[in-house]
Amino acid sequence: VVAAWASVPFPALRGYSLPDTLCTYQQDVPWKLLSSCREQKVSCCFAQSVVLRGICKERKQPASLLHACESTEEVLQRYLHTLFPGAFSTSHVLEQPCNTLPPYPQFFSSLLTRQGFLLDKPPSYSSAAVESIPVLAALQSSPVLHTLLYSLYKDLQKLNTRRWASFFSAGVEQDDFQEALQELRTLSQCYEMGFGADGSEDEADSD
Fold it and tell me: Which residue spans traverse the membrane (predicted)?
């Protein structure tokens, strides 16, 4: 099970390199959770696959370990290893950005250039339509899945199955449904960190 994350567009300032941008996100990640889960901040993960497109590494005097990397791929990989030590991470970098020409909806901020990079301040002139944007997308196996899966289990547990005769007439047995519920709860426990969470869940169940 994985959760989907994305940054559309990727928050890169015009004229800044990828190391410059990532260095400003040392405590948090520059992408947002897309999966329906209340808990959004990720402090660790087990495995992840990250794709970045539309960003190239500019050659500048090394100012950090990220700036000393030889390629864009190495910059992203080192950033992921620094932010999520011990996690299995794969990363891919594509030079081609995502095109946003019509009929793509123009819902972008006026702070974006035609190429989708952020400006320091709003332009004094009417900005042209955004033609392309850099994008980062990630699929991540992390503890947020415990919250997501357990919430799904709790919601399904509240269903009064007697009111869904058509559901069981399709061939689903009540015992199979209950077994699947328990498997869902067991699956959620595979993604929790540490111990003692079961007690709080059991108390919530009793409530």
Answer: none
